[in-house]
Amino acid sequence: MNIRHKANKIRLFSFSTPQMRAFHLSWFAFHVCFFGWFGIAPLMAVVRDDLDLSKTQIGNTIIASVAITVVVRLVIGLLCDRLGPRKTYTWLLCLGSLPVMLIGLADSFETFLLARLAIGAIGASFVITQYHSTVMFAPNVVGTANATTAGWGNLGGGTTQILMPLVFSGVLMLGVSETLGWRLAMIVPGIVLFLTGLAYYHFTQDAPDGNFSDLRARGELPPATQEHGALQSFTAAARDIRVWALFAVYAACFGVELTINNIAAIYFFDTFSLDLATAGLIAGLFGLMNLFARTLGGWFSDLFARNGGLKGRVRWLFIALLCEGIALTGFAQMQTLAVAISIMLVFSLFVQMAEGATFGVVPFINKNAMGAVAGIVGAGGNAGAVAAGFLFRSESLSYQQGLFYLGLTVIAASLFALTVKFSSETEAAETAAYRQADGARRVEQEAATG
């Protein structure tokens, strides 16, 4: 896909260019999606009592919330290639708002499970966010752009843990019972999702030079109706062993983050005998690291690429994932609340840096199948969360034991990063593109400063 006029600099406080409007609206849309996707997680102690759920049943709902996303992420990348990220995001947000608002109708484990399964489709928003920022930004900053939009989106996992108990408390102040309160509270993120979908349609465009439909009409992109085009794109990505290596890597970082988002509040609630609001606040700290940690991972990826090229990006990915696994095994053995929080923050730092590092590599795997590659790798995160979910549904395995085994798995998965290789031709071409984009940025910067 040949997209021209990509931005070679992130102008954080600008909304005037299509690149920066896509940047800000894509991270905000992903952020809002977390309120729908995991809004129920910090309220699970109340839902557990209301619906009389066992630990195994709670574990099954955790698996359901991320399982469907595996499939939807595979499809959503192809839709981005075909329809463009603007229309794809709009439809996902507006349709995804419906099960979020309707989860309040659940009156049994089965109906609650189905609602969480339907809501899980919203998690595919990540692929669109990464796709849109990849289309808009040049090689010298694409790692940072991808990491920041995803990181500030993932930040929703933290703010959800903090704000949803407050929304719940606000609803209770109206005089309703807890049984009705959690149901009414979930209407709020549903409304926000729908409004964000409308905003995305009106204020963004697919690429720097216009929407995909306009670019195809001008002959600047191949027609979307090319026979078997989407299938060929997916097949090319699926046949590349590097894509599956990154699938496993992303399972070990984003999959772990999704798992922690689901269990953190109830873990601290039960393990340290905290109240719901305090447990949610502490759990929220894990997600709040996304404010800078994932950006830092992407920034280091771009920095390693300056001297080490694509090999440098891969080396940094390995380092970040290895440190994540070591920190997680340490967190799993903590018995004191203050120490547990401290280690959790270190663990969170490396989880999110590893995520940023992963999508610092993804844009360079196959530019002709960009959506398919992003979709498959993104699905890896949810596949990892599904697999990890089985560790936390067993009545015989404690949360701490599950976290320790998960940490060992992450350490093993870090080795997959080292299997990602690039041809010498690709290395040379991307090094030249990086230097060209970086040189253009320096010229613009010098001109601006006189």
TrEMBL record:
Extract the signal peptide range.
none
**Domain Major facilitator superfamily (MFS) profile: start-end pairs:** 22-425
Q: Which Pfam families match?
A: MFS_1 (PF07690)
UniProt cross-references to CDD domains, sorted A to Z: MFS_NRT2_like
Would the keyword tRNA processing be found if you checked this record's keyword annotation? no
Kindly give the SUPFAM superfamilies that the UniProt entry links to this protein.
Answer: MFS general substrate transporter (SSF103473)
Q: Where does this polypeptide localize?
A: Cell membrane; Membrane
Q: Where are the transmembrane segments?
A: 21-46, 58-76, 88-106, 112-131, 152-174, 180-201, 243-268, 274-293, 314-332, 338-362, 369-391, 403-420
- Tell me the InterPro entries matching this sequence: MFS, MFS_dom, MFS_trans_sf, NO3_transporter, NO3_transporter_NarK/NarU-like
Q: Which GO terms describe its biological process?
A: nitrate assimilation
- Identify the keywords attached in UniProt to this record, alphabetized: Cell membrane, Membrane, Nitrate assimilation, Transmembrane, Transmembrane helix, Transport
Q: Reply yes or no: does the keyword Transmembrane helix apply.
A: yes
What membrane topology was assigned to this protein in its record?
Multi-pass membrane protein
One Gene Ontology cellular component term attached to this UniProt record is: plasma membrane
Annotated GO molecular function terms are:
nitrate transmembrane transporter activity; nitrite transmembrane transporter activity
Q: Which family does it belong to?
A: Belongs to the major facilitator superfamily. Nitrate/nitrite porter (TC 2.A.1.8) family.
Protein's name in the database: Nitrate/nitrite transporter
